[in-house]
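Task card 7
Instruction: Convert sequence to structure tokens.
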Amino acid sequence: MFIDNCKNLAIQLNDLNLNDPINSCDKTKCEENLHVLRNYANHATIPISGLTTESSSNGEAKIRPTIKRQDLKGKFNKHDRLIINTWPKNGIEIMPEITKSNTIIQKLLKAIIQKFIKTRINEKEIEQIKADKEIWKNILIPQKTRGVFPLPLSNELKVAYTDSLLLKMVVSLIIDNVEYN
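Output:
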């Protein structure tokens, strides 16, 4: 789902040339499983077939929900049925599926942000962010930040609140000197 959304983003921001990093992230089995579960959840409650609990030596308890394919009710399209039929009889655990997908999403998001920095932020702005590193870390990143930004495909400037998570990621990559060139 995230990869499909990124493909739409690549069309809207074609100057960033995002096709290569997006196309390098083929949908994995875990993403397909989550896609099927998301589709199912749009129409019915996902039946949790079992919970595996585990506690570690540091006292943290982990609960891992399991879903069995035979507990899913209803009609499925051909694609979703093929995916469900690959699940083991004892079911799939949701948390490893989410963890694997999240890892892929984080890598892709980092690649997109690096392209954004390289294409849209000039060296003078990068140096200013680095010079104001403490202000960004202690004041600006923890808060929602308001700024004036050009609208896509327009010369019009607009005052808007930026997404604090996205802003934090962009500035953090710059401050931490992550390679973006």
